[in-house]
Amino acid sequence: MNNSEFSGPRYWKSLDSLAETPAFKDWVEREFPAGASEMEGVNRRQFMKVMAASFGLAGLGMAGCRRPEQTILPYSKQPENVIPGIPVYYTSSQPGARDNVPVIIETHTGRPTKVEGNPSYKPYGGATSVYTQASILDLYDPDRATKSSLTPSAVRDRLAEISKASAADKGKGLVFLAEPSTSPSRATLVAQIKKTFPEATWTEYTPVDQSASEQAAKAVFGSTLRALPDFSKAKRVLSLDADFIHSSDSAIGLARAFTKTRKVKDSKDAKKMSRLYSVESALTLTGSMADHRLRLSSSQMGAFIAQVGAVVLEKKHVAGPLAAELKKAGASLKVDASWVDECAADLADHAGHSIIVAGEHLSQSVHAIVIALNDALAAPVKYVAVPDAAAGIEATVARLNKGDVKTLVVLGGNPVYDAPVDLEFGTALAKAEESIFISGIINETSEAASLLIARSHYLESWGDGRTFDGTLVPVQPMIEPLFPTFNDLEVLARLAGADTTDPYAIAQATFKAEGGKAFSKFLSDGLLEGSEFKAVNAKVAPATVVAALNIDELKAFELSASQLEVRYAPSSHAGDGRFANNGWMMECPDPITKLTWDNAILISPRLAKELEEQQGIQIFPSKKPMNKDSEFFEGAKGTLQNNKAEFKRGKEHAVVAELTINGRKIKAPIHVVPGMANYTVVLPLGMGREVVGRVGAGVGFNAYSVRSSDAMGCALGGALQLTSEKFYLANTQEHWSMEGRAIVREATAKHYAEKPDFATKMGVESHAPANYGKDDDKTLQEKSTGQFRGNSAYDHPSFAKPAPNVKVWKDNEDKFPAVQQWGMAIDMNSCTGCTACVVACQSENNTPIVGKDQSLRGREMHWMRIDRYFAAEEYDQTEVPEDVQVSFMGMMCQHCENAPCEQVCPVNATVHDNQGLNTMAYNRCVGTRYCANNCPYKVRRFNFFDWNKREIGQVYKGPLGKVDEPELQKMQKNPNVTVRMRGVMEKCTYCTQRIESAKIEQKRLAGASADIAIKDGAIKTACQQVCPTDAITFGDISDANSEVSKMKASDRNYSVLGYLNARPRTTYLARLRNPNPKMPKAYKKPYSYTQYDKRYGHGSVAGHGADAHGADHGAAAHDDSHSTEAHPAH
Amino acid sequence: MDASQAALLAKVQPAELHEQALVTNDRDFNWVTDKICRIVETKTPTWWWVCMAVALMTASFTGVGLLWLVSTGVGVWGLANPINWGWAIVNFVFWIGIGHAGTLISAVLCLLKQGWRTSINRAAEAMTIFAVVCAGIFPLFHVGRVWFAWWLFPIPNSNAIWPQFRSPLEWDVFAVSTYGTVSVLFWYMGMIPDLGVLRDRAMQRLSKGAYEGAGLLAKGMDVFRKNFYAIFAMGWRNAGNHWRNYEMAYLILAGISTPLVLSVHTIVSFDFALAVLPGWHTTIFPPYFVAGAIFSGFGMVLTLMLPLRALYGLHDLITQRHIDNMCKICLGTGSIVGYAYIMEFFIAWYGANPYESFAFINRAFGQYWWAYVMMFSCNVFTPQLFWFKKVRANAALVWVMSIFINVGMWFERFVITVTSLANDFLPSSWGYYSPTMVDILTFFGTFGLFSVLFLLFLRFLPLMPIAEVKFVMPAADPHGHHGDEKGDHH
Lengths: 1130, 490
Fold this sequence. Notes:
The complex is a heterodimer. By secondary structure, chain A is α/β, with parallel strands linked by helices. Chain A contains 38 helices and 37 strands. In chain A, the strands form 11 sheets. In chain A, strands 18, 19, 20, 21, 22, 23, 24 and 25 form an 8-stranded mixed β-sheet that branches. In chain A, α5 (about 130-140) packs parallel to α28, α11 packs across α12 and α14 (about 365-375) packs antiparallel against α22. The relative contact order of chain A is 0.11. By secondary structure, chain B is an all-alpha fold. Chain B is built from 17 helices and no strands. The two termini of chain B are about 30 Å apart.
């Protein structure tokens, strides 16, 4: 037991207690098993209690009437700084291999409940990734490693023994395999270990290594340098298979900086928009943001960048050996020359403002060329010195295979599962005399290791780390470890035989050593100002670049359906596997595929077609009456396409295929993704874990089982054999096409500059009478306060005036300013589709997960979702296109003023309040679900079962199933948000709890003054707070100067389905794309716009005579871009 | 006109219009009374016990289905986002529709003085009530928290709030409960004279005392009947003023019921018509739903009456003329429904709203095309056969077709409810609805429940209004029944 939790004098019960002998400690632990054993199963006391109660009620037969018995533990002594009901926020950071994400943790009476980014760290601006949001759930995972295989004291003893033994033989039998870490404290300890045990081997391994560019920099510059591109200065970007917006290290910062160049205030700004060229093998969010996108396999990227490089160098008049080498290297690839030329010319024309980035899975040669080209383009890229990489897992395995390893210490990770398959790490591990595994999760490695040391979650640990740019950030515990777990630093310190083993002291000492002064300020700021890596003057010498090139790596291979390229990428659910037991991540739809709970082999439509033909197994669904080839009914032709994968009764029924690569085979379902390079298949890593908790059990397939050390990024020579097996994939979006509807409205920057009002001239509303009638021209502020607002159960107060109850204070009416009116604007030009908002919302609002089976049925509970639509150049509704433009739209309750949901609720459970919120009164809801039916946006979610009380897979058992809400999971719940029971409807509330706490805070600040209006920006909804690109703005729309009002004043602002006159408070800013007119396939309008035009817009002939209403919205209407196309008959 | 012409004219006999009598074979009053009362008074036939057992077993599906539903959650049904209403609402509208024929026959045809209603109205009213019972189960149990369903009634509750009177679901509560109440009243009131007859017959037998040995059971039954019918006959003595009051009350109730025939299904159609969904949001629904309801109601009356006629040998009471008339009503309402189906397409096209036009094209040719085909063929093509007298005369064929009508009308409600929800505004949310076993069994169980109730009705209550049947008998016509002589003697 830890005595530090007691304040006040210490007492001891016995001499044993005083001495803290192991026997006493064991006794204590058995008597009061901390944590786990109480959470799991029934202990004796509980059993007696339950039995007594059951016997007592047995005769009555009224067990159902028993009130739930809960123990209340009042504070006998009020802890300092804790006011029940008031959350306390602490800074910390989420450790990563190369980037600690600075965070602020919301805690309620000592329980961390929500992770938010730390806005003090400017590059991330308070944003986090989706993984950071979900990481808090791992703290409360009932299946986490709750105790070590020995008692804590025995663990400490064992560590001391090892340390002593190793000191004797200088660490000859000691091998470390650690996850890479940014922690300077750990680095210090590692240095100490290396010093104390000079013969020991320290290696590091992470399955998704992102350091290829640093290795290349070492080859080019002679020292390991990290490139820090400044995208906010970029005007032209070429991304080479790099998903810098979403999945690379520090993607939050990169996406944030990049989208700054895409913020367009008005049509005059449109010209300033940056342009993104993306060359990709798989469809990523970066490719979705791109203005021009080229599908190209990863193995062809080398030749491609060589071609681009040759043109760039030519344009920049840099001759010499490098240019010649690049010309040679590029020759092996046949690709549209004008694409390369125009792209390179555009980059060269914007020298000083163009950046090239390459994916970290690409070869060092590619990165060497990128370094040289960025230099030639004077790209805004800064280089900083970073430590050299430690030896890799190959070294570990080599040592193990030698057979002289006494102790193997595996620090985190899961090498038995994720090490390259050819290294056979599991077998090698068994050769060590003793293997110690320090891990917070139960996994394959913990099964194999001889000693498991349970590791504390980062929210329970002291430590430190660095962000990607080197800024020192703390790791602070929010809660005393829930279980008897160990901190990394403590374990390492004990192994090193250090004097100080207290992680807090270690972190503090490191902080001092880093030149920090005030530790408490460091903790309250969450970072140390000015501690980032210093830029180094890195000059590129062409000769060294040439020397760094490996011409074999640059050669483009000929790929085909039988010679596939297999790419390994972390899955959007489990990452590299560490989130495999995280329900939020499992149920968070993949941004592109919208798959939940599973990974699939991602293949291109072309490959799917070829496989269908060759192997005679159907992947695409059969032609149906509404197909374009329909001879059934002329009017129905092409009006509804069949879905891209085989959806049977609304469930994706995927064909299972066997992939063979280098003699290894793996069987998995396939999922067709448009926009993939034809012969590249993607295997998402991190799923299919075998030793995993309840959530991750039986989910997905393990792509590590075919991944070998010589092809960690991508492997060549794969082949797919379709089988007759089928597999259900839980896809949350069955339909990929927008069907030509004006839902996500897009235009090119040029079009926007010419027709600034294009967004409001689309859709049915451009044909319908004005929604507000003659008041249509009133300002947003007048509308928000002066207009009739439908569907409230109560009187309609005058919104602009004080609330009616204020009459009590008749003479003090000035003290009661008008009720603020909340609204939201979403800038689709900034939204990258990263889905961090989805999980942030889930975390904030106690949204349950429902499991794969229920997701398959379409019962996922997310209050917010990201709709993803594909549009192709050719308007063909029946074929899955090969090249697509992707549009994203964050969709949640729109808080309609004339809400269709409100008037149909028979029990007044959903009503309007005077701030313009569409509110849900859960207590009143009887669950007719009429509101959900009548919601045009389909954002309402129904509790079909008691999700919060039933375990996944137990929901159908009803009263016969286990009623189980694990104590641990309850601890994560936000106490300010009701946990909903079965049978009630729920939906986005605009984070009403945040609005209320902001009101309380403002009233506190206002004191006696009348200044109780919440300041603009004081409320951030959970989705807004997490958004890396600030795509979401929330605030008071009755205030013309608020940020949200300004956003809504944009001429790109429109309401989705505005013609319904629901008057949503959430509106969208149309998306802009910025194509280069000189490029091949340069489009005058985004594909979705062209589709709309052809089908429902003015391009179509049906019922829309140009003369009937040509005058008032000719703007977007009679553009010439589609006039040559044949108009399909309606 | 000269005399010869006048003489000639006097000789001319107008052609006799052979309207088939409503009670054939020159039956007398006594026979009618006996025929109807004996259904209740004779020993329970074996087929009744068999049917009852089957019906009870089927009904238990509903019981088990609802038990699971309430104890576990609405998720045991196939509902999901975006299809939040599935079979439950389909079944509700289906059963309510069936319930329409009863009131129409008893009230509207009564006011229109259609004599042929008499031999079918009692059974049709019973059918109405039992259909409303079956219908009521679904909206009640489809809610997420059925234990709070009473919040839909304007009763003071702890939420201190009225129901929302603008919600069509709220109107449903009033419409259906009013309909149910009035139907029960009407049914019961119409039965009072007949209950009196049954009571009197039991008393007569008891006073004769002709029970011996095995007849003890029969005696016991008669004692039961005497008391049971006496209570419910409310002291009916067949007096003149009783009859006068009875006739007046009957007329008033008919007057009250008549608007209900239109209102109930109009309001049920508002559940859809008042929503914003393409495919629901349409003004054609009220008349189209009412026509459809009458259509399905008569379909169900045929489905029930034809076997009854065969089983109890009621051919003289339920004559070919009755069948003809019901077939013709089916033909008429079926054609109205078919017209509405086509008109929906016209409006969708004419309205030029892309969401609307998609909704209707999708209905017919989208993922639920099979349901549309079922609906259209059963509801539009089937009744067209009723143009032919030969078809109408073939009772077996009529019975099969009446089942088609019921199937088709169920599919109509399915098409309307599900297809509109499955593919609405945002394609990202599109989904597909499949019922679960619980959905299916709960629905089929209601047929069991319906049958149980109907079998009980057959066994214990008079199947036809004895007196009213007698009114329309040729024997009741003081002027003789073979053609009035010019009808000038009033």
